[in-house]
Amino acid sequence: MFDTIRHLSFYTILEEHVRSYPGKIAHAFGGQSTTFAQLLERVDRLIDALETSGVVAGDRILWLGQNSDRIMELLIAASQLDAMLCPSNWRQSKTELAAQIDDLEPKVIFWQNEEVGPEIRAGRELASFKGGRWLQHDGDGEDSYESFLASGRADRNDHREVDTRAGALIIYTAAFDGRPNGAVLSQNTILLENLVLAPTQRISNETVFLAVGPLFHLGTLMQCLTVFHLGGTNVFVRRSDAQSIAQSIHDHKCTRTWLVSKTMDEIIELNHDRRYDISSLRSIPYTEEWNRMVTVEPVETHVPGYGQTEVMGLAVLPQYGRHAIGIFGRPSPLCHMRIVDSEDRDVEPGQVGEIVFRGPIVMNGYWRRPELNAQRHRNGWHHTNDLGRREADGSLTFIGPKVQMIKSGVENIYPAEVEACIRRHPAVADCGIIGVPHPQWIQTVKAIVVLKPGSEATEKDIVEHCRAQIASYKKPSSVEFREDMPRLASGGVNYKLLDEIYGGGNYPGGETRTS
């Protein structure tokens, strides 16, 4: 029986904001602002238009475009039909886009022509799936977003019974196993995580958040969802560029955003004459010139913590524990965390193992990946494929991706732990760890190291550095130096190539490292 008295959803939250914040701006994008009341009317129209187009529970809606307030509109509308929205990575190649279209088989696709149109059209042509209704979100005419929205009724008062435990959002994750996987997240999971992020990220109904990072990642989208939930205002820029960011902060008095140092430098140069007032922005300390432009907050208030898409963003936060170099905090109140070995047994504090979670912030699973779901959710715990270590005080130190284990005698060695250690050497710019076959020990550890320009270090220096910081059996038996580190398109180290060049192999289970 549907329990209406306890029902809470994106849609009912929007309804309450209309009553609680009359006339308040919910979204701003491209020179236009939308109040919560206007947003509700648009969402009602979208629900009717989508339903008229045949969208039913379980269907997928694909967004092929850059940042826009329409992503939030579509998410709320789709969730009222128990359908799922997937904001796609607009930086993908035509081949990758085609694979995602074939994987999702979306009922409706909203696409953007400006800047990304040629690659999207090529991906559509390449895809085997030829169904779905295609609508241009930045176009005019019958097959445009606004025309589609206008075709829907605005007087729905859409009080329907929806399952907030069902999937509402699909976010594709990095392709560590050779192909991206769509993590399915429910309304319940998102709304509960919002209540964790609100106090820890200092989000309230007074927040004006500038969405700069791509909304196909949770790093920015989870902030937007929390701001919406709390009744704040979201301001969107199509993509990250200094002029649009500075103008938006100036126009809307944005209080929070996420910027990389390169963008901050560009804003400093652009705003040297103070044409833009960005003093409303609360920021970590940076350069003296930047600090004079913004409202500086202690760096501790902006430390994110540890998480991943599959647990709705952040699961371990420094606000629940001390923060120091390498220490990420403690689990949020909405999850349990363990550190386990290859047999899913708890390891002792101070020992490295895989980070596993359970709780309501864990995803429903990957879209159309039953075998992967069984593996990643075995024994009732979500296995992150990331390595961590519980410190003596119970806090977490994140080590790095698990990727592939090296077997040396009876000992299991995780390359990420050794790499993290070597990268702390003052002369090291980058490194990769592989396992080399050994007739007695199964494998030995080899380090491939890139030194910083002008720095020097010997094989002995690297080995002794490791001996002093990690267990002796984990230290490399040999070190090779090279000028650069081969990397995959995703940015990860190309371990397969390192194995080919330096004789790696004999990994447990006979597996070949692919990333």
UniProtKB/TrEMBL annotation:
Domain AMP-binding enzyme C-terminal: 417-491
Transmembrane segments: none
Record keywords, A-Z: Ligase
Keyword Ligase: yes
Protein name: AMP-binding protein
Pfam families to which the protein is assigned, alphabetical: AMP-binding, AMP-binding_C
Signal peptide (UniProt feature, chain positions): none
PANTHER family: ACYL-COA SYNTHETASE, MEDIUM-CHAIN ACYL-COA LIGASE ACSF2, MITOCHONDRIAL
AMP-dependent synthetase/ligase domain span: 14-367
Family: Belongs to the ATP-dependent AMP-binding enzyme family.
UniProt keyword annotation of Protease present: no
UniProt source species: Sphingomonas oligophenolica
